Structure formats: structure tokens, C-alpha cells
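user: can you give me the structure for this one chain? C-alpha cells are fine.
assistant: on it. calling the predictor now.
[tool input]
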Amino acid sequence: MKRLLPYFMIAAGASLWGIIAIFVKGLADFGFAPMEIVAIRVIYAALFLLLIGVFKYRNEMKLKEKKDVRLFIGTGILSVVFFNFCYFTTISQMNISIAVILLYTSPAFVTILSFLFLKESLNLNKILAVIGTIIGCILIAGVSAGASKITFIGILTGLGSGLGYALYTIFGKFALRKYQPFTVTLYTFILASLFLLPITQLWNRLDLLMDPYVLLYSIGLGFIPSVLAYFIYTWGLEKTEGSKASVIATVEPVVATLLGVMLYGERLGLIQIAGAILILCSVIIVNVTFRKRGAKPLEQKIS
């Protein structure tokens, strides 16, 4: 049982990422735009991380050089802000299950970007995974069945969320050469918060932000599918292989799909389900490739 605990923790962390739509839809119902919801998430997450850092990771809160801020501009602004904006927009445009499946096109983007910028090799498994992801997206985008809803903007932002998360993996690899995961995560959210606060001007909505229900959704969004999920996932990751963790993390779209069906009455057509399965199989193929090489493809995840 003790040996299975890390796997359970990884699945638990991924499951917490899968319920993010509860908080996103809750805040959207109060009239918050996707970018405002992103700002709420990163600001509360940054506050929680600062609090945790003061008590537990003081030595890891320091930057080694001021110029290293540019590393976290990549992870915080070019990745996390862009990724979350696209993801939350997709949730508002289409079914939760479709949104999270499109997010899982990320490994295909990682494969391509790693080949272009990190000079990683391409093999048959990776090429098949990219092709499978593309076909899966075509199946999802090309058919609208039952109560499911497909929009062009939703498909575009859904793929954008996959690209945005892939960028985090690329920028994160450079940052992790010099800093611990906690430091990278902390400054990622701090930079994202500093960037979004003046853009969204959330202080103009202070009265609404103080509403008890909005406050509950905001704290929940910043803590449960963000900070708590990250720490649970990382705890399990430290005790198992990164490739195995990445495959286990595919429980996230399963949880998101069940959430959409049970809470929001969403339905998927058979062809869309086939496309979703094809994308998930492509994710597993990519991670089998990494395991054979002995690498750890997704050493940290912010979903």
C-alpha cells in the first residue's frame, strides 16, 4: 500500500486540476472575464506561495541574479498567463471535456518545440503521437453532436492552451537549470500577477471581489487546483518516474469529463470521444518514448 501512495498522490493532484472548471464557471457567473479570472488565480496562488515560502522555503525565495527575472517572464507571462487565458476562454466557449482534451495537445507541441529549440531528436513514436494529436483535434473540431458545442474561437483557444502549457515546459527547463521547482513556481506566479494586475485593474471590482461567494471561489481557485494540486503532484513525483507520473496525470481529463457530465449535463458524440481517446493515446505514446530514454518529460505542471 505504501508503494502505491505516490501514484495515488499524483492521481489526486491531477484530479484537483480536473475540477478547476467549478471555480472558473463560478467566477464567470459573477461577470468576471477570462483574463480577470486568470488574474484572480495567479494573484491568490502567489499569495499562498509567498506564505508557504516564508515558513518553509526561505532560502529558495532568493534570486541568484536580477537578470534571472527574464526566465520567469517566459514561464509567468508568455506561458502561464497565455495558457490560463486560452484555457478559461475555451471553458466558457465549449464543453469542459473538450477544453481539457485540447489542453492535452501540449505534449505534441512540446515534441515540436523541443526539436526546434532544445535540439531533441524526433523518432517514430513522437511523430506518430503528433499525427495522432492532429487527427484527434480534427475529429473533435469537425463534428458537433448531441448537446456538445463547438466554436471556432473555442478550438483556437483550446489549441492555444496546449501551446501555452508547452511553452512552460520549454521555459521551465531553462529556469530549472538554475533554480529549485518551488523558486520557479513562486516567481512564475509573482511575475504573472504583476503583469496582470494593471491590465485587469481588479481594484475597480473590489466590492464584487469582497462578496463572500466570489471570495470563496477566488481562494479556492488559487489554492485547490493551483498550489495544493502542485504540492500533492510534486510529492508523488519525487517518489516515482516522471514518465509514469505524466501518464497517471491523464486522469485529469477523465475527471473533467465526469464533472461536465454530472454537474453541467454535457454530452459528447462518438466521433468526439474517438478524437479524445486518440489524443490521450498520443500523450501516452510520447511518455513511453521519454521513459525509454530515461528522461522526465513533465517534472512540474501548472494546470
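assistant: here you go. Residues 5-293 form one domain. Confidence is low (pLDDT under 50) at residues 293-300.
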